[in-house]
Every structure is written in C-alpha cells, then in structure tokens.
Design a protein that fits this description.
Blueprint: H1 2-19, H2 25-31, H3 45-57, H4 62-74, H5 81-93, H6 97-110, H7 114-131, H8 136-140
C-alpha cells in the first residue's frame, strides 16, 4: 500500500513540473504593468449624449439597437432627451414597437421620482405622437 502511494505521489509531482511555466524575462517585464478600468478618461454628459445619439441614428438592426440600449442604460445616469428621442426613432425605423415601449419603461426605472418621468414624457410628447408610441401605462393601465 505504501509503495502504491509513493508511486502515485511521484507521478503527480512529475506532472505538476510539466505544467509549470518557466519564469522568463518577458513575463517579468509585463508584471510591472497594471491594468485598471479607471485608466480611461472621464466623459462629459454632453459627450455621452452625442456618442449615443450618433449610435442610435446609425443602428442597423435590432441586436445593435438592444446592445446600445443595454450599454446606455448601464451608466449611473439618466440619458438625455435627445438620446431617448434617437433611440425611439431607431426602434420605429427598425419596426420594433415593443422596444420603443421598453425604452420608456427604462426611463421610468432610471429617474429618481415620478415627477421626473412625467417631465420626460412631456418633453418627448411630440416625438411620441409623431411615431405613435404609447407608454406601458397607456397601453395596460397603471400596474
């Protein structure tokens, strides 16, 4: 039994040596570089709005629109009216009414209080009427 254990231990020891990578100078050179998510520059709200407005104006398919919405709403801010307007236009251009309704739901979830949501709806009223977009509350009543 003892001999069986020692041969198994020796096999594990030999295989673990084969797995270890030898230390090289290139590996040591990279060790001094630190990668951090804080390294990229901060973006102003105006730049953020301009970037996402342009993104939604150029969205070519539903996947791209949804990816852009997911990224846009992931930030710790409420997108501006111009960004929401561009997203609503893109959703109607791509013929996805449900996405347009969900954009407004996303705004409702991102704002701090119902008064802010009402202000967004008032600001977006002309484009909503032009595109024929209703809110979830208008479609299904208060829930």
């Amino acid at each position: 039994m003892n001999r069986l254990f020692s041969s198994a231990a020796r096999a594990v020891s030999l295989s673990s040596r084969a797995i270890r990578a030898p230390a090289t100078t290139s590996r040591l050179a990279v060790a001094g570089v630190r990668f951090s998510s804080n390294d990229h520059g901060s973006e102003s709200f105006a730049d953020f709005s301009k970037r996402y407005t342009a993104f939604f104006e150029n969205a070519e398919d539903l996947f791209e629109l949804q990816r852009g919405l997911n990224n846009c709403f992931a930030y710790d801010l409420v997108p501006g009216v111009d960004v929401i307007e561009a997203a609503l236009k893109a959703s109607r251009r791509l013929d996805t009414y449900s996405t347009a309704v969900r954009i407004l739901e996303g705004v409702r979830e991102k704002v701090e209080n119902p008064k802010q949501y009402e202000a967004y709806l008032q600001e977006l009223k002309p484009i909503r009427e032009e595109l024929g977009i209703s809110t979830k509350e208008e479609l299904y009543g208060e829930q």
